[in-house]
Amino acid sequence: MKKAKMILDRDFSIGQIDKRLYGSFIEHLGRAVYGGIYEPGHPTADKSGFRRDVMDLIRKLDVPIVRYPGGNFVSGFNWEDSIGPVETRPRRLDLAWATTETNEVGLHEFAEWAKDAQTEVMYAVNLGSKGPDEARNVVEYANHKGGTYWSDLRIKNGAKDPFDIKLWCLGNEMDGPWQMCQKTAYEYGRVAREAGKMMKWVDSSIELVACGSSSHDMPTFGAWEYQMLDECYDQVDHVSIHRYYGNPTGDTPGFLARSMDMDAFIKTVVSICDAVGGKKHSKKKLNLSFDEWNVWYHSNAQDKEIVKQDKWGKALPLLEDIYNFEDALLVGSMLITMLRNADRVKVACMAQLVNVIAPIMTRNGGGAWAQTIYWPLLHASKYGRGTALRPIVQSPTYDCSDYTDVPFLDATAVLNSDGSVTLFAVNRDMKENIELTCDLRAFGKLQPSEHIVLHHDDVKAVNSESAPNNVSPKKGTHGKMDNGQLSISIPALSWNVIRLTK
Ligand code: AHR
Question: How far apart are CA 154 and CA 139, in angstroms?
Fold first, then answer.
């Protein structure tokens, strides 16, 4: 039987967890908007056409922020198309996804939906085919009180109060050749600086996210961050990072170790931010916005066929990954990794929220259900708020295709504001339970009050409309507390939430 040990102390902390760590993303892509959050005529649709069944699942996640409207889509998007009477809005070719955008849902509708979903909007401006002028105009439209061209137009269009959008992305993945109007690091850095400067002149309370590399694997990774920040360091607050993993070869131990790559990626980008800050003798520290992260590979082949058969179609079923149990375990480890870096990762958006590589799936005219990955996100969002603790974890390790010394037990802990402590743990071992001892003496009289376990005997098990609870959380063993030492069994291949309360 494998054994692991954890030591926690309230004075060993990483920092305050920004609630925006549990954000998400809705792009005008596939059935995320049309057929996802919005489907007039659906039995559960409200008077604005938004699906209440989807809204219920989203509200349970308590998503603090939703990135919108893209993604690759935003690099060709005219935000002005998405305001005013719906009948007069133009239909446009979306070159990012080879589909047709009707603009039926636009800025006002999305802001209304976000309010209802009890979330904030994180709005991305187009720094591909458009530039600083359109960017500062949309800030004026959304956030200025009134008495100017754009703010009065918003009022005329039905929103007396500003939308008050606080977090803005300066474009999306501008290093990628698949992007409309890809830029070099220098070109992008200058545009981001000028756009950011003007946007903050319109509203000094906003925060800005500059585009980091679209992935760790880009040939320009590292140099991109350094050069673009050299141009716009003073104007921005966060640098974006994006990461998706897949398991096309069916190597589960290797796949579950991918969060180690995520950890190294975060640390590298933090180092580059600090190097540029150092070079500039700046007192300012930039944070990271991990505004696209998830598993993404199941739908790749199918997507090519869909676009081949229905190029320029509307709301095509694109990027509809059906997530299995092992995906949920990696998502759990990715959340643990973000908590371990909560001092510098202040925003994170699981990509995406509905239908498109998403924790929530729908059928047009039919049901809505939670995919396997919904559960770790829900648990982290619910119990992962407060102070991220810096645990000492001793675990047996394994070697796999890409890594050596991968801990079987991936774990971290949070001190919640009511004095309770929550442990999050993934057991990566395919066969054996891990007997965990956790030293909690520094926290006084805590007792284990809840142990939630996500496990399935089949790593490829999925949820579906007819079997929505096939992979769903169950009650665990609770464990035993003796003199401030918790002993608990962490089942083989499982995601665990262990709650300790006074
Ligand atoms: O989330 C799907 C796509 O992945 C986004 O549009 C893009 O930014 C990334 O490449």
Answer: 11
Both tokens of residue 398? 């394994």
Residue 91 has what DSSP assignment?
A: P
| Ligand 1 site, residue 291, Cβ cutoff 6 A | no
Q: From 142, 151, 149, 159, select the one nearest 205 (Cα to Cα).
A: 142
Picking from 68, 71, 70, 64, the residue whose alpha carbon sits closest to that of residue 23 is: 64
Contacts (Cβ under 8 Å, ≥6 apart) of 490: 4, 409, 425, 427, 433, 434, 435, 436, 496
Would the pTM of this model clear 0.85, i.e. be above it? yes
Q: What is the pLDDT of residues 64-79, one digit of tens each?
A: 999 999 999 999 999 9
> Averaged over 110-135, what is the pLDDT?
98
* Rounded distance from Cα 351 to ligand 1 centre (Å): 8
Q: Looking at ligand 1, which residue's alpha carbon is closest to its atom 8?
A: 71
Angle at 142 between CA 140 and CA 147, to 5 degrees: 55
Cα-based distances in Å from 441 to 393, 419, 499: 16, 14, 15
Strand-strand pairing, 345-351 and 23-25: parallel
Q: Tell me how far apart the alpha carbons of residues 226 and 214 are, in angstroms, rounded to a whole number.
A: 14
CA distances from 188 to 192, 224, 411, 468 (A): 6, 9, 38, 44
Asked whether 70 lines ligand 1 (CB < 6 A), one says yes
Tokens of 430: 């395919």
Task: Say how many Å lie between the first and final Cα of the chain, rounded.
Answer: 31
Catalytic residues: 173, 292
Q: Please answer whether residues 406 and 399 qualify as being in contact, where contact means their C-beta atoms are separated by less than 8 angstroms.
A: yes
**Segment holding 121, helix H or strand E:** strand 120-125
Burial of 277 (0-12, 13-18, 19+ CB in 10 A): middle
72 CA from centroid of ligand 1 (Å): 6
Q: What is the pLDDT of residues 425-483, one digit of tens each?
A: 999 999 999 999 999 999 988 999 999 999 999 999 999 999 999 999 999 987 999 99
Residue 478's pLDDT is what? 79
Cα distances from 281 to residues 229, 231, 268, 443, in angstroms, run 13, 14, 20, 40
In sequence order, which ranges of 280-436 are alpha helices (DSSP H)? 300-309, 325-340, 374-383
Tokens 């239909």 -> residue: 91
396/205 Cα distance (integer angstroms): 48
Residue 171 CA to ligand 1 center (angstroms) comes to 12
Q: What is the three-class DSSP state of 104?
A: coil
Alpha-carbon distance of 387 to 342, in angstroms, equals 9
Residue nearest ligand 1's atom 9 by CA: 71
Could you give the CA distance from residue 202 to residue 164 in angstroms, rounded to a whole number?
Answer: 12
